[in-house]
Design goal:
The chain is α/β, with parallel strands linked by helices. Among the domains are: about 170 residues, FAD/NAD(P)-binding domain (3-Layer(bba) Sandwich), CATH 3.50.50.60; about 110 residues, FAD/NAD(P)-binding domain; about 55 residues, no CATH class; about 80 residues, Sulfite Reductase Hemoprotein,Domain 2 (Sulfite Reductase Hemoprotein, domain 2, Alpha-Beta Complex); about 160 residues, Sulfite Reductase Hemoprotein, domain 1, CATH 3.30.413. Helix content is about 30%, strand content about 20%. The strands form 12 sheets. Strands 5-2-1-9-21 form a 5-stranded parallel beta sheet, with no helix packed on it. Strands 11-18-12-13-14 form a 5-stranded parallel beta sheet, with helices on one face. Helix 12 packs across helix 14, helix 19 runs antiparallel to helix 20 and helix 24 crosses helix 25. The longest helix is centred in the C-terminal third of the chain and has 18 residues. It is globular, with a radius of gyration of 30 Å. The two termini are about 60 Å apart.
Amino acid sequence: MNARRKPRLIVVGNGMAPGRALEQLFERAPDSYEVTIFNAEPRVNYDRIMLSPVLSGEKTFEEIVIHGDGWYADHGVTLYKGCRVTHIDRQARMVATEGGIAESYDKLLIATGSLPIIIPVPGHNLAGVLTYRDLDDVQAMLLMAQSRGNAVVIGGGLLGLEAAAGLRERGMQVTVLHLMPTLMERQLDPAAGHLLKQAVEARGIRVITEANTKAILGDKQVRAVALADGTEIPADLVVMAVGIRPNAVLAKDAGLEVKRGIVVGADMRTSDPDIFAVGECAEAHGQVFGLVAPLYDMANVVAAQLAGDAAAQFQPTATATKLKVTGINLFSAGDFADGKDREEIVLRDAARGIYKRLVLKDNRIVGTVLYGDTSDGAWFFDLLKRDTDVADMRETLIFGPRYAGGAQADPTAAVAALPDDAEICGCNGVCKGKITAAIDAQGLKSLDDVRARTKASASCGSCTGLVEQLLRIKLGDAYNPATVQPMCGCTGLGHDDVRRLIVAQQLKSIPELMQALEWKTSGGCAKCRPALNYYLLATWPGEYKDDSQSRYINERVHANIQKDGTYSVVPRMWGGVTSAKELRAIADVVDRFNIPTVKVTGGQRIDMLGVKKDDLPAVWAELNAAGLVSGHAYGKALRTVKTCVGSEWCRFGTQDSTGLGIKIEKFMWGSWTPAKVKMAVSGCPRNCAEATCKDVGVICVESGYDILFAGAAGLDIKGTETLGHVDNEPEVIEVIAALVQLYREQGRYLERIYKWAKRVGLDTIRQQVMADRERRAALYERFVYSQTFSQHDPWAERAKGHDAHEFAPLRDLSRLEAAE
């Protein structure tokens, strides 16, 4: 007898709201539906709230993914990426895509989100005019930002200001145009709007209010924005962030009731009872919603209804707004308009840049605006949502929960008093009870544990303080937020402590270190030994002898192992430049040793793949004979210095970028670092060598050289930060060597430069390398001294027999015979 077929649930859209609905459905009624998702975007579900930190470089896309590919597989969900649904046949109960896929449904969930509003001014369709709604928009902005030109953001609301801050962080000159007299006028009163404008301008962003955009100028590519008063603002990029409207076209074409959005009842069902709508495309109680909290409330109702709870109803509640721009703390909730039946309580602290305003009606909070200090936002918001009578605490209310009713109280008392359903994390819709239950049930001990299990504080981070207070309440003295993460299970010490003690106690060998620092194991492990080997090598150049057995296999044999057990060999090509002699030598080696694959790498080098391990010394010997040395493609070391042709050949080149790249690479090759280091030198701001996504980059300009650092273009995608400007090539080399030496001395093993920079602080690095010339000179000298022990070709040594045991088979088993 056949098993009963599970009902089919098709989801159109894969944003945050449908993702939350499916999470809740799988918790309530696991394995109750056969789920298929059609996502117009070519990727998994991610946290759109966090697009602004991705734009600014504070987060990577991988860090904002909500459901990775594994989540869909674990729950048996079929996900079609980059697959847009174009038609719903309600009679046949089918959906069809523009690619010709057709699927039947028993229940359908429409989550098509919203569309950005485009101001229909002349020039709105020019190249370089973008909107700001999804990751594709962010990636387009990041590409445009590489020019470090002029950007104009039209719209001074939440999204517009976040886009402006991100583009400024990427090095663009940014102007914000806002039609109204003050910024974020829907969320802020004029006083807070004024403070916000000052803070935005302090970041180097020009703000023009009461600015009426007349036209966007340009032929094919945008060049300026014209205002109604005749002002023209230069622009290489224009971002429209003036609002959104529900994307209800698919539902309207299917004959569903549509007004501003897809009309749904309190049960989130559309005019067709088998079709639900959720998120920004839905219109409930005559309202459409754009903030995540009500969207998650909608999602919870959808999940409950699909799981059989017919009583579940969506009821709109007050929402709160936070600005996700690092260094600007802003919170608003409710209605703060003036009225005869309202009174207000205001606190201003000009010296600390704090402004707080509470709007009361009948002794109840109806609106709140906090600027500068938002730590009490959750408490005020909870009082607002619960319609709490605040008469008894009226005199001290503005000072927050610690002073409610009189003298200062335990700072955790107010959080402890919050009910279990009080919202702690607005970004992810996590209440207090869910966090405390997870701490108890799953034995959570740290902020990272809570983030991993509940998602609270995992997005914008503004609720981190509240989450930490809950941890402190539940764990008492056992909670120590400053606890150092140990290097591994062999020690309780962290990387920074080990590095400090190596210097303080003059520890110069691994056995000595393990004894002195009371290692818990006799010989360490695969995590700590490579790290210790690097720390000792970087701290005591010329004194500590490199322990090859504390290195991974690639660094032991100076080649990259492949999945079939063969190796790849990548010779160094200084600045990406080669010659006929070198190319002939490579060709001869490929023929002589039957190397199956030869590939040009992204770092302007040639990779020979499929080399047998016992052939490596002979391959290296022949390459050495042509003047080729190890490219260290296997090492935690300088890999490449990529260049463009520069002023020698290019019409736009301002400096000899190729020559400079060769000088840098020949000066710095062989140096071991905490993780791999890639560099690039571009001969002009057109940036053909892609210097703005490298660990260290140089952009040549007419006046000298802009030095950049802390970029990434691998698992993480991140633009560089500006380190500084210098006038000549010797200064470039000195600054880069000092920067790398600082990284060598402070970086944790396997920590890339961009992660190190984020941890220690960009301004700290700029101060030590650029502003403090004595410090820079000392770092440079230490790097030069270290190089006297590092610049030897490991291939040449091994071609002459060094470490021969690494390349010889343990035993020849090809001629074994059976015993009689």
